[in-house]
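Hi Q.,

Before the meeting this afternoon, I wanted you to have the 2-acetamido-2-deoxy-beta-D-glucopyranose prediction in hand. No need to reply - just skim if you have a minute. The sequence and ligand are here:
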Amino acid sequence: MRNHSFLFWVVLGLLVDGVFVSVTDEVKPVSVMKGDSVILSTGVSELQSDDMLEWIFGEVIIAKIEEKHKISINVFRDRLELDSQNGSLTIKDIANEHEGLYKVDIRGRSETSKRFNVTVREGMMNVSVMEGESVTLRTGVIEIQGHDLILWKFEDHLIAEINKETNQFILNDSGDERFKDRLQPNEKTGSLIISKSRITDTGVYHLQMSNSTYTIQRTIGVTVTAVSVSLRDLAMILGGGGVVLLVGALFALVIYCFKKCKKQRGGMI
Ligand SMILES: *[C@@H]1O[C@H](CO)[C@@H](O)[C@H](O)[C@H]1NC(C)=O
Ligand SMILES: *[C@@H]1O[C@H](CO)[C@@H](O)[C@H](O)[C@H]1NC(C)=O
Ligand SMILES: *[C@@H]1O[C@H](CO)[C@@H](O)[C@H](O)[C@H]1NC(C)=O
Ligand SMILES: *[C@@H]1O[C@H](CO)[C@@H](O)[C@H](O)[C@H]1NC(C)=O
Ligand SMILES: *[C@@H]1O[C@H](CO)[C@@H](O)[C@H](O)[C@H]1NC(C)=O
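Predicted structure with the ligand bound:
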């Protein structure tokens, strides 16, 4: 009872003051891979015109919005992007030196403070397979939980959507002949398997994992190499008189080496 009335007076006091304070002390863990882009959300959908916003990395202010939405960004070179609507901070092409604590403070009619602990793991390498093998596009997470939404895109087309919140797994492989019946999502990790790969699967794939705290964007290059064609080529060479040429060339090489070595030895004596 005492606690409740205490809270009541605190809330009333804040309302009377015209300022609502919402401070989340919890540090949100954000685990990314090297090369990812990460968007840290303020949780505010729209900033007010008189809001002051500061993004702090460790002890350093890295981005801020002053009055009149003036944006000034220092350090991080051209890796940072600040959204003037909602204050979200994008860190592109993240590297080890960007690991650490990020804090956002918004002061105005409402006050918000959020902290993120960003850790950077080794990056996902591009994938290279032989035609017919399956390709696994990994999210890098052991189990999707907090990630509300996972989108997989090939070039600009959505090929899979995993919505953990609604427990929906949508594959866009029926309208598109390209991936017809060859896509298989891993419901636990959110990874996507493309079976019986074709040369036309070669290209750039985009992953987007997001929940209300942050969004991770990753690009994975996939190369599918034709095996059958090169084997056929080899068979043609071997079958079509190529053997004779090949043996001839080898023989010439041996003779050449033999002569050269003899010459060298002769010179030394
Ligand atoms: C903030 O704005 C960016 C760019 O307009 C958008 O991509 C993002 O979804 C927004 N975030 C939230 C939490 O609304
Ligand atoms: C940030 O995460 C790292 C790795 O998980 C951990 O060692 C560190 O204690 C965390 N820092 C804070 C302030 O939560
Ligand atoms: C967002 O995802 C992360 C990682 O799974 C999780 O720690 C965090 O609690 C999630 N946040 C929300 C609001 O679901
Ligand atoms: C599904 O894939 C087709 C072909 O690539 C594309 O035209 C379409 O826009 C995709 N659907 C969605 C919802 O993105
Ligand atoms: C991965 O593939 C993409 C697209 O094919 C390419 O632009 C990028 O340089 C590759 N990255 C690495 C590390 O090989």
